Amino acid sequence: MLYTLAGGGTLCGVASLVLLIVSTATDFWMQYRYSGASANQGLWRFCINHKCHAHTITVAFWDATRAFMLLSVLSCFAGVLLGLSAFGNGTKSRRVRTGGFALLLSGFLALLALAIYTGVTVNFFGKRFLDWRFSWSYIVAWVAIILSFAADTWLGWICQQQTVQVGSTSVPIRRTLPNRLLPMFKKAKWEVIVYLHTKETAPNHSSLLLSLIAM
């Protein structure tokens, strides 16, 4: 069960990583009309009539958006690697937890990048160009954020289930004792059983007697 869940969480992380890379690299964050011609732009280039050029103007919000998106890609990549390594080694709890944190950080970084880009686009480009809209690269980034949060939630639930299983696992006392102490343990156990059996309150100790006999 945990292997299936780990695989699902890691799959969400991989999908988020792919979408983050696609969104960061493509040129369709925004579409608009420029002097009657169709135009679109991304974080690195702008295109007019399918002829693309690199951004020549250094704008702070573009730099900030690029930086946060690249950091998001790196964080998501680390989370996916940790998730895959944990899955291959029996869902190690520490690696799963760290991978989930990296995916959560990736989602927050991408969310911060989109918040900056959205705010500046609406307040600046929305006033400069009348016929404009966000395009598919921008939408893909939002889908990647949702997937990264989903992967973090999935991996976090796996860690919780592992903790519950470890806490509920009981190891018999006799398995934890050295061989030289087993005779002493058995002798003491039967002495306690005989003592409880001879007491007048023996019915009150029935559950304790059964547990001792089962040891």
UniProtKB/TrEMBL annotation:
UniProt entry keywords in alphabetical sequence: Membrane, Transmembrane, Transmembrane helix
Q: Answer whether the UniProt record assigns the keyword Transmembrane to this protein.
A: yes
Membrane-related topology note: Multi-pass membrane protein
Query: Which is one GO molecular function term here?
Result: structural constituent of eye lens
What are the annotated GO cellular component locations?
Answer: plasma membrane
Q: What is its main location?
A: membrane
Keyword Metal-binding belongs to the record = no
Q: Where in the cell is it found?
A: Membrane
Membrane spanning segments where? 67-88, 100-124, 136-155
Family membership: Belongs to the PMP-22/EMP/MP20 family.
Q: What is this protein called?
A: Lens intrinsic membrane protein 2.2
Organism for this UniProt entry:
Oncorhynchus kisutch
